[in-house]
């Protein structure tokens, strides 16, 4: 028994796929995704922000950082990197005490202070992950549709 297949229209399909690929803006999507995580973190994971004494006039909320100066909150940012074919979005801070607030640990003289974890980045990413995936799906579906593939 022998089966023969004949393919037609492959050139047209390749042209449409190329057009769709060109319409997909991964850099823009990555920038919007990182901005979304940063915005959520700054808005939902911090309270306070005025000068003066620590947490002055701001009630404590478990798991939320009470700010005095807003330095940590204001330092949160992102950058986009390319490594080969990978596109990587990094969200974080360069403030030295940011890590201990995210993960907890001991700090201070003789490591006398035990600081509970009060994550501000991971919950933001977890909260926005679904929206980020949906945005990517919509972008790809739109590109396929504009290319005549859907």
Describe what you observe in this structure:
With 150 residues, the chain is α+β, with helices and mostly antiparallel strands. A two-stranded parallel sheet has the order 1-2. Strands 3-4 form a two-stranded antiparallel sheet. A two-stranded antiparallel ribbon has the order 5-6. Helix content is 46%, strand content 17%. The protein is elongated, with a radius of gyration of 23 Å. It has 5 helices and 6 strands. A hairpin with a 5-residue loop joins strand 5 and strand 6 (113-115). The longest helix has 25 residues, at 122-146.
- The domain tally reads 1
Q: Report Rg.
A: 23 Å
Supply the helix-strand structural class.
alpha+beta
Strand runs, count: 6
User: Secondary-structure element order, as H and E?
Assistant: HHEEHEEHEEH
Give the mean pLDDT. Answer: 88
* Shape call: elongated
Q: pLDDT below 50 for ≥5 consecutive residues: which ranges?
A: none
- Helical content band: 40-55%
Strand content: 15-25%
List the total number of helices.
5
* Largest sheet properties: 2 strands, parallel
Gap from first CA to last CA? 36 Å
Strand line-up in the sheet with most strands: 1-2
Summarize the helices and strands and which ones pair or pack.
Elements: H1 10-23, H2 26-44, E1 46-48, E2 65-67, H3 71-75, E3 77-83, E4 86-92, H4 98-103, E5 105-107, E6 113-115, H5 122-146
Parallel strand pairs: 1-2
Antiparallel strand pairs: 3-4, 5-6
Keyphrases for this structure?
150 residues; alpha+beta; two-stranded parallel sheet; two-stranded antiparallel sheet; 5 helices; 46% helix; elongated
